[in-house]
Amino acid sequence: MNKFLVLCFLLLVSCKSYQIDADSLQSQLQKTTPVIDSLSEGRDITFFKGENLEELIVLNGNGEKVVLKTDTPIVLKVTRKDGFKFRYYLNSMSLFENEFKGMGPTYLVGGMIHKVKVDSIASIKVKP
């Protein structure tokens, strides 16, 4: 019984949550190698992919910077200013101009694709 309680406690303690603001996430993505996609209309679009990030700089509960390695799945819990909430997997999201786009946590079975303008985001929680 004691081992079970210790295990439960460790699981609760190890489930850390961090914060990142939309502008910081946007600037970190823009520092990655851009992806250029040619459209049939003869113009190219440039976007940035979350899977190209090697690390993500976030803030812990004390406001201190923490560097998360992206070799493990990272979930971004996004809340828009109108209160609507959804999740992205960092490795499935992209940034095009001023808009994030990505798949939610059910991307293994098709998932839901969400698009959100950077300036309409109220908060982003990060769960490694």
From TrEMBL:
Domain of life: Bacteria
Name this protein carries in UniProt: Lipoprotein
